[in-house]
UniProtKB/TrEMBL annotation:
This is Outer membrane protein assembly factor BamB. GO terms for biological process: Gram-negative-bacterium-type cell outer membrane assembly; protein insertion into membrane. Part of the Bam complex. It comes from Atopomonas hussainii. Part of the outer membrane protein assembly complex, which is involved in assembly and insertion of beta-barrel proteins into the outer membrane.
């Protein structure tokens, strides 16, 4: 546990500095000037308690139907009408939430620093069940209706019965000496659970029994120091059709066959926040602040936007024909998917915008570090 904490402390500097080779760390780039082409209309906004809190939490809201669910680090879980922002219910858990939010099949799911997985009724907010695990939960629990799967801080995958919370199976992994704080959210289907690991590997398991179906290494640790050898997969995994897209820190971005795990293509990349996919293009927020578009057929770069260098970007979210990307000052940037030019910008939260935005139809939702949840449309 001590090595994990030391790794977090050291790597917090590494992430902020984005692995600069110079002894003097360069400051974040100034905001670029541009001619605004697209405006964003704020439909509603609501404060969600303490937001991400003082730790490096990644509490992404979840949308299920016409409702949006959000949680803060103090344990308040809120259900809202996603069109009006009206609060439908609020549940005070009185526990420090560090993983969430997962939603689907009538459940709202969060994890805590103490290792609790808590399932709430999506309609009423009443607690269905609680299960204590052996390690803190830093990712959102996911469910397919039968099973809830959780990835814990020690990189183990735990499957729970969606009705009772009883443990079905556990898939154990060895944690590297140093890791980034956080884990990517697992992806669950009717038959599969797919997870990115701190070792730079992706694993697919049978959802009912926890048996490994395939394993693929995306990043190979390199370098002499433990810091140089960190290759965590902490960004969001994206599934499109029969392809899984994944990116690691200090490693690669890759397209994998969802059934077999075979690599369809790969190229060098370094990201701790994740990626997006739309209309045959893959978009990556690199650790150094560059946003890159990659052609899914040829694996070649279509464009690269480096004007947000060292601004600690969120994962890029496709929105209409644009990308929505947040930064450490709380700005939400709109970038053209076609050529990477800036087309719009708005301030969301003065404490920063760390987690990826969510899109449902013509609506975009951004959740700031300080707890400001904003619903936006194009105007």
């Amino acid at each position: 546990m001590r090595s994990k904490l030391l790794g977090v402390m050291a790597l917090s500097l590494l992430v902020v500095g984005c692995s600069s080779n110079s002894k003097k760390e360069l400051p974040p780039a100034d905001l670029p000037d541009f001619e605004e082409e697209v405006g964003l209309k704020k439909e509603w906004s609501r404060g969600i308690g303490s937001g991400q809190g003082d730790l490096y939490n990644l509490l992404v809201p979840a949308i299920d139907g016409d409702r949006i669910f959000a949680a803060d680090s103090d344990g308040d879980v809120v259900a809202m009408d996603r069109f009006t922002g009206k609060v439908l219910w609020k549940k005070e858990l009185d526990k420090p939430v560090s993983g969430g939010v997962g939603a689907g099949e009538g459940l709202v799911l969060v994890g805590t620093l103490r290792g609790d997985v808590i399932a709430l009724d999506a309609a009423s907010g009443e607690r269905r069940w609680k299960k204590r695990l052996k390690s803190e939960v830093l990712s959102a629990p996911v469910t397919n209706g039968r099973t809830v799967v959780v990835q814990t801080q020690d990189d183990n995958l735990v499957a729970l019965d969606a009705t009772t919370g009883e443990q079905r199976w556990i898939y154990e992994n060895s944690l590297p000496v140093l890791t980034l704080r956080g884990t990517s959210d697992p992806v669950i289907t009717r038959n599969l659970v797919i997870a990115g690991l701190a070792s730079g590997k992706v694993v697919a398991l049978d959802v009912d029994r926890g048996l490994p179906l395939w394993e693929q290494r995306v990043a190979i640790p390199q370098g002499r120091s433990e810091l140089e050898r960190v290759v965590d997969i902490d960004g969001n995994l994206v599934v499109s059709g029969s392809t899984l897209y994944v990116v690691s820190y200090q490693g690669r971005v890759a397209a994998l066959d969802l059934r077999t795990g075979q690599i369809r293509w790969q190229r060098e990349a370094s990201s701790y926040s994740g990626l997006g996919e739309d209309l045959g293009s893959i978009f990556v927020s690199q650790a150094n602040g560059t946003v890159e578009a990659i052609d899914d057929r040829t694996a070649t770069a279509l464009w690269s936007q480096d004007a947000l260098a060292r601004r600690q970007l969120s994962a890029p979210t496709p929105f209409s024909t644009y990308l929505a990307v947040g930064d450490f000052e709380g700005y939400l940037h709109l970038i053209s998917q076609v050529d990477g030019r800036f087309v719009g910008r708005t301030k969301i939260d003065g404490d920063g915008l760390r987690v990826r935005a969510l899109v449902k139809g013509d609506w975009l939702y951004a959740f700031g570090n300080g707890g400001e949840l904003v619903a936006l449309t194009l105007r």
